[in-house]
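Bit of a strange request maybe. I'm writing a small parser for structure token strings and I need a real example to test against, not something I typed by hand. Could someone generate the tokens for this chain?
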Amino acid sequence: MKKNIFLFFLALFAVLFTGCQNNEAGFPSSEKPTVVVATKEIYGAPTRKFEIKATLADDLGLKSIQIQIPELSLDKVITFATDPLLKSYDLSYFFEIPANRGTSEVFKIKLTITDVSGNSIDEDINLRLDGEFAAPAISMVSPKEGAVILLSTSKEMPVNFVVNDDSGIDYVQVKCAELGIDEMIQLSNSPQSYTFNKTYTLPVTAANYVLTITAKDKFAIPNTGTLNVNIVATNEYPAIYLCDQPKGTNLTTDAVGVPMYFHEKNGQDFEFKYYADKDNKEVYFLGQESDFAPHCFGLNESGSLTDDVASAPIVLPAKGYYSIKVNPNTLVYTVTKYTPSSKVWADVANGLWHDVEAQRRPFVSVCGAGIKGADWDTWTAWVQTGLHLANNPNNPYQLVGEYTLTGTMEATFTGQWWSPSWRLIKNGIATMSPGENGNAKYPAAPGIYKVVLDTELERVFITKK
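Reply from user aminoacidic:
Good idea to test on real output. This should exercise your parser:
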């Protein structure tokens, strides 16, 4: 009898012990947890991060989730608190694929979800490394950004662009609500390159328009690229630019001043001041800022001014400063060499900061944003000697230097407590402060740039080195 009682209690103890083991420290039995993954197939690429997204749930409480990719040495366990119990969890886990993996490799991502009762379930996700994440590349042929269409010459607007994408192009769309343009081109056979070429007719009314071009590729998870092109339809030129770069130069590479904005405008008479840094300097006049087309004013075979992309340059015979006037309607221009009479800021490289003005010597540095080492404090401009400009030994009216730009920039070229200072406003204009206009922001690709502040022209030129 005693033996039977002993065996009964031993069996009861074993049952209770097993129950405690299975139910995780005394939690009661429950249903298995559930998992809903955002996708059963994830695309990645070497050196690129991918995201695992899933929704976990349990009727009693979640204990943990384990994420495994043995081939990539991934074994991550996320443990959840049990006081209070967590019944649902939105998983968002990022992992970067090692650089030494191949783009044709395929792996299994194993998720193991365990609840506090000891129940667990597994879920597998396919991981492919042949992902394509670049949006279709849209290259404008015409019109370029900021293009001027002169309605008095022609009301036609040729639109020509090329789209390229490695995974193939699904569709291309051209839209401009103000012009009633909404054209969708669905492409068959998913070509990797497509050229769009069509001419639209503009209304008589002068206005600014935005042409929106969209392209979507055929990748499993589609990528979409969009490009907005601003267009000016006008009966007269709002601006003319002087360009001293060879034909074919990319005029959007530099940050400020290329091509150069006009100085004075009276009707369609535009006047420039310009410095030729060498004899026989070649220049053109452009009707738009970002390209040589469609309006490029140069010389024809008889030496007269003409609006022709194939025209020859105007040659300034000798090094020095010039006053240049041009009328794009009458096609008349004049060039006059002159000697500046404005103040020369000499010996700025030997400037001196001093609280006593009489003991101060002028220096010229920069305050601003998007310039490595610069902020809006003139003391920073003084102590950051790499920001100081120096005199150009070949031109007393130019202060030169070299800056590293970190992105969109704005600047005021300054001495101690803003004396002297030139504020960089729109169109590369550098007015001597105090001025009426605020600093302009200039998009710029990160990199090293040459800087020229021409105090005679009141222009700044910041060009990619």
